[in-house]
Design brief:
The protein is of the alpha+beta class. It contains two helices and three strands, in the order ααβββ. The chain has a three-stranded antiparallel β-sheet, with no helix packed on it.
Length: 77
């Protein structure tokens, strides 16, 4: 995201904060002992309720999960 957090808050009308993705990864991995954390995957669909489909370095796969955290490339200009 390029720009100031204050600009984003003004445009969206909600509180916001910025966090580098590497810092988010460190926080999640540190807090989630014994949990499968996978990076570098793209959500490709929801073929069944609660069973998202992904495509990653090892090819496509599906899973059942209680929580999925992802990021979106924001077209900030």
């Amino acid at each position: 995201m390029r720009g100031k957090v204050e600009e984003f808050e003004h445009r969206m009308g909600v509180p916001a904060f910025a966090l580098h993705c590497a810092d988010l990864h460190d926080l999640l991995i540190g807090a989630l002992e014994g949990v499968d954390v996978r990076l570098g995957h793209a959500l490709t669909g929801l073929p069944e309720p609660d069973t998202p489909a992904f495509d990653g370095p090892d090819g496509p796969w599906r899973l059942t999960a209680d929580l999925i955290v992802g990021t979106v490339a924001w077209p900030w200009r």
